[in-house]
Protein backbone atom coordinates (compact mmCIF):
# COMPACT_ATOMS: atom_id res chain seq x y z
CA UNK A 1 0.00 0.00 0.00
CA UNK A 2 1.25 3.47 -0.88
CA UNK A 3 1.99 5.87 1.98
CA UNK A 4 -0.18 8.87 1.19
CA UNK A 5 0.81 11.04 4.17
CA UNK A 6 2.43 13.67 1.91
CA UNK A 7 -0.05 13.17 -0.93
CA UNK A 8 -3.18 15.00 -1.99
CA UNK A 9 -6.01 13.91 -4.25
CA UNK A 10 -7.14 16.71 -6.57
CA UNK A 11 -10.71 16.31 -7.86
CA UNK A 12 -10.82 18.66 -10.84
CA UNK A 13 -14.17 20.29 -11.66
CA UNK A 14 -16.45 17.36 -10.89
CA UNK A 15 -19.50 19.60 -11.05
CA UNK A 16 -23.10 19.21 -12.17
CA UNK A 17 -22.67 21.32 -15.33
CA UNK A 18 -19.91 18.99 -16.57
CA UNK A 19 -21.94 15.82 -15.96
CA UNK A 20 -24.79 14.29 -17.95
CA UNK A 21 -27.57 16.86 -18.47
CA UNK A 22 -25.31 19.76 -17.50
CA UNK A 23 -24.77 22.94 -19.50
CA UNK A 24 -21.33 21.79 -20.70
CA UNK A 25 -21.53 18.03 -20.19
CA UNK A 26 -18.34 16.07 -20.81
CA UNK A 27 -19.12 12.90 -22.81
CA UNK A 28 -19.36 9.91 -20.44
CA UNK A 29 -18.41 12.22 -17.56
CA UNK A 30 -20.58 10.36 -15.05
CA UNK A 31 -18.39 7.27 -15.45
CA UNK A 32 -15.64 8.90 -13.36
CA UNK A 33 -17.77 9.13 -10.22
CA UNK A 34 -17.23 5.56 -9.02
CA UNK A 35 -13.41 5.60 -9.40
CA UNK A 36 -13.23 9.12 -7.92
CA UNK A 37 -15.20 7.96 -4.89
CA UNK A 38 -12.90 4.93 -4.56
CA UNK A 39 -9.88 7.23 -4.55
CA UNK A 40 -11.61 9.42 -1.97
CA UNK A 41 -11.68 6.50 0.48
CA UNK A 42 -7.88 6.32 0.56
CA UNK A 43 -5.88 7.99 3.33
CA UNK A 44 -4.64 11.07 1.46
CA UNK A 45 -3.33 13.89 3.63
CA UNK A 46 -5.79 16.17 1.81
CA UNK A 47 -8.56 15.78 -0.75
CA UNK A 48 -9.08 19.00 -2.65
CA UNK A 49 -11.91 19.71 -5.07
CA UNK A 50 -11.51 22.47 -7.63
CA UNK A 51 -14.62 24.24 -8.88
CA UNK A 52 -15.24 26.55 -11.80
CA UNK A 53 -17.05 29.40 -10.05
CA UNK A 54 -17.93 31.94 -12.72
CA UNK A 55 -19.82 35.23 -12.56
CA UNK A 56 -22.94 35.28 -14.78
CA UNK A 57 -21.18 37.44 -17.40
CA UNK A 58 -17.89 35.53 -17.47
CA UNK A 59 -15.53 36.12 -20.40
CA UNK A 60 -15.51 32.43 -21.36
CA UNK A 61 -19.24 32.45 -22.13
CA UNK A 62 -20.38 32.73 -25.75
CA UNK A 63 -22.45 35.87 -25.02
CA UNK A 64 -19.19 37.63 -24.08
CA UNK A 65 -17.30 36.24 -27.09
CA UNK A 66 -15.91 33.19 -25.29
CA UNK A 67 -15.86 29.59 -26.55
CA UNK A 68 -18.29 28.01 -24.05
CA UNK A 69 -21.98 28.16 -23.17
CA UNK A 70 -22.73 29.57 -19.71
CA UNK A 71 -21.69 26.99 -17.11
CA UNK A 72 -20.79 26.71 -13.43
CA UNK A 73 -22.23 30.12 -12.55
CA UNK A 74 -21.34 30.83 -8.92
CA UNK A 75 -24.00 29.72 -6.47
CA UNK A 76 -26.08 27.72 -8.98
CA UNK A 77 -26.89 24.02 -9.06
CA UNK A 78 -24.64 23.66 -12.12
CA UNK A 79 -21.62 24.86 -10.13
CA UNK A 80 -22.29 22.47 -7.23
CA UNK A 81 -20.52 19.20 -6.68
CA UNK A 82 -22.91 16.35 -7.54
CA UNK A 83 -24.64 14.39 -4.78
CA UNK A 84 -23.12 11.22 -6.26
CA UNK A 85 -19.60 12.48 -5.40
CA UNK A 86 -19.05 11.61 -1.76
CA UNK A 87 -18.38 14.95 -0.03
CA UNK A 88 -17.23 13.44 3.28
CA UNK A 89 -13.54 13.06 2.39
CA UNK A 90 -13.16 16.50 0.75
CA UNK A 91 -10.98 18.64 3.02
CA UNK A 92 -10.66 21.79 0.89
CA UNK A 93 -12.29 23.50 -2.10
CA UNK A 94 -10.39 25.80 -4.47
CA UNK A 95 -12.53 27.95 -6.73
CA UNK A 96 -11.23 29.19 -10.07
CA UNK A 97 -12.42 31.35 -12.95
CA UNK A 98 -13.92 33.71 -10.38
CA UNK A 99 -13.03 36.95 -12.17
CA UNK A 100 -15.30 38.19 -14.96
CA UNK A 101 -12.46 39.02 -17.35
CA UNK A 102 -10.18 36.02 -16.88
CA UNK A 103 -10.65 32.26 -17.14
CA UNK A 104 -8.77 29.57 -15.27
CA UNK A 105 -8.40 26.04 -16.62
CA UNK A 106 -5.69 25.07 -14.14
CA UNK A 107 -6.35 24.56 -10.47
CA UNK A 108 -3.07 26.45 -9.86
CA UNK A 109 -3.11 29.54 -12.09
CA UNK A 110 -5.55 31.67 -14.03
CA UNK A 111 -5.08 31.60 -17.81
CA UNK A 112 -3.04 34.83 -17.57
CA UNK A 113 -0.35 32.47 -16.13
CA UNK A 114 0.36 34.99 -13.33
CA UNK A 115 -2.62 34.97 -10.95
CA UNK A 116 -2.59 32.16 -8.41
CA UNK A 117 -5.72 30.36 -7.24
CA UNK A 118 -4.05 29.66 -3.89
CA UNK A 119 -3.75 25.90 -4.49
CA UNK A 120 0.06 25.85 -4.48
CA UNK A 121 0.23 27.73 -1.16
CA UNK A 122 -2.34 25.39 0.36
CA UNK A 123 -0.40 22.30 -0.73
CA UNK A 124 2.93 23.66 0.49
CA UNK A 125 1.34 24.62 3.81
CA UNK A 126 0.14 21.03 4.22
CA UNK A 127 3.57 19.60 3.39
CA UNK A 128 2.31 17.89 0.22
CA UNK A 129 4.85 16.76 -2.40
CA UNK A 130 2.77 14.25 -4.42
CA UNK A 131 -0.50 14.80 -6.28
CA UNK A 132 -3.00 12.32 -7.66
CA UNK A 133 -5.31 14.09 -10.11
CA UNK A 134 -8.63 13.09 -11.64
CA UNK A 135 -11.74 14.82 -12.96
CA UNK A 136 -13.17 16.74 -15.91
CA UNK A 137 -12.26 17.55 -18.60
CA UNK A 138 -9.05 15.62 -19.23
CA UNK A 139 -7.99 17.66 -22.27
CA UNK A 140 -8.62 21.03 -20.61
CA UNK A 141 -8.70 21.55 -16.84
CA UNK A 142 -7.24 18.20 -15.75
CA UNK A 143 -4.29 18.54 -18.14
CA UNK A 144 -3.69 22.20 -17.24
CA UNK A 145 -3.72 21.33 -13.53
CA UNK A 146 -1.36 18.37 -13.98
CA UNK A 147 1.12 20.33 -16.10
CA UNK A 148 1.18 23.18 -13.57
CA UNK A 149 1.67 20.62 -10.79
CA UNK A 150 4.76 19.26 -12.55
CA UNK A 151 6.04 22.83 -13.18
CA UNK A 152 5.55 23.55 -9.46
CA UNK A 153 7.70 20.55 -8.50
CA UNK A 154 5.08 18.03 -7.40
CA UNK A 155 5.37 14.34 -8.22
CA UNK A 156 2.20 14.12 -10.31
CA UNK A 157 -0.01 11.20 -11.26
CA UNK A 158 -3.25 11.05 -13.23
CA UNK A 159 -5.78 8.25 -12.89
CA UNK A 160 -7.15 7.84 -16.45
CA UNK A 161 -10.24 5.81 -15.49
CA UNK A 162 -11.26 8.71 -13.24
CA UNK A 163 -10.96 11.28 -16.06
CA UNK A 164 -12.95 12.05 -19.20
CA UNK A 165 -12.30 14.64 -21.86
CA UNK A 166 -14.13 16.60 -24.51
CA UNK A 167 -12.21 14.73 -27.22
CA UNK A 168 -13.43 11.16 -27.73
CA UNK A 169 -9.89 9.77 -27.81
CA UNK A 170 -7.95 10.44 -24.57
CA UNK A 171 -4.63 9.07 -25.89
CA UNK A 172 -3.18 12.33 -27.31
CA UNK A 173 -3.80 14.16 -24.02
CA UNK A 174 -2.41 11.29 -21.94
CA UNK A 175 0.67 10.96 -24.16
CA UNK A 176 1.36 14.70 -23.87
CA UNK A 177 1.05 14.51 -20.09
CA UNK A 178 3.46 11.56 -19.92
CA UNK A 179 5.99 13.42 -22.10
CA UNK A 180 5.79 16.34 -19.63
CA UNK A 181 6.52 14.14 -16.59
CA UNK A 182 3.06 13.03 -15.42
CA UNK A 183 2.71 9.37 -14.44
CA UNK A 184 -0.44 7.43 -15.31
CA UNK A 185 -1.72 5.16 -12.54
CA UNK A 186 -4.82 3.03 -12.16
CA UNK A 187 -7.11 3.05 -9.13
CA UNK A 188 -6.20 -0.59 -8.47
CA UNK A 189 -2.51 0.37 -8.12
CA UNK A 190 -3.15 2.22 -4.87
TrEMBL record:
Source domain of life: Bacteria
Record GO biological process: pyridine nucleotide biosynthetic process
Database matches in Pfam families: Isochorismatase
Domain Isochorismatase-like: residue ranges: 7-181
Pathway assigned to this chain's UniProt record: Cofactor biosynthesis; nicotinate biosynthesis; nicotinate from nicotinamide: step 1/1
EC number from the UniProt entry: 3.5.1.19
Swiss-Prot/TrEMBL keywords: Hydrolase, Metal-binding, Pyridine nucleotide biosynthesis
GO molecular function: metal ion binding; nicotinamidase activity
Residues that span the membrane, as ranges: none
Family from the record: Belongs to the isochorismatase family.
Record-given protein name: nicotinamidase
Organism per entry: Gluconobacter kanchanaburiensis NBRC 103587
Taxonomic classification: Bacteria, Pseudomonadati, Pseudomonadota, Alphaproteobacteria, Acetobacterales
Amino acid sequence: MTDLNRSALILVDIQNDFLSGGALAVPDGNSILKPANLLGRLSFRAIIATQDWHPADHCSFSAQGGPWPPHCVAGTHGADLPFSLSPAPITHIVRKGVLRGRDSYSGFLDNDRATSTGLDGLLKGLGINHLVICGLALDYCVSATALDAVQSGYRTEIVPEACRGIASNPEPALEKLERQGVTLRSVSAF
